[in-house]
Amino acid sequence: MPESAGREYTLLGADGRRYRSRTPGALGGHRRLKIYGRLDCPAALRALARGGYIAHRVFFADEDTAIAAGYRPCAVCSRAAYRAWHAGLAD
Ligand SMILES: [Zn+2]
Question: Average pLDDT for residues 30-54, to the nearest whole number?
Answer without folding.
Answer: 95
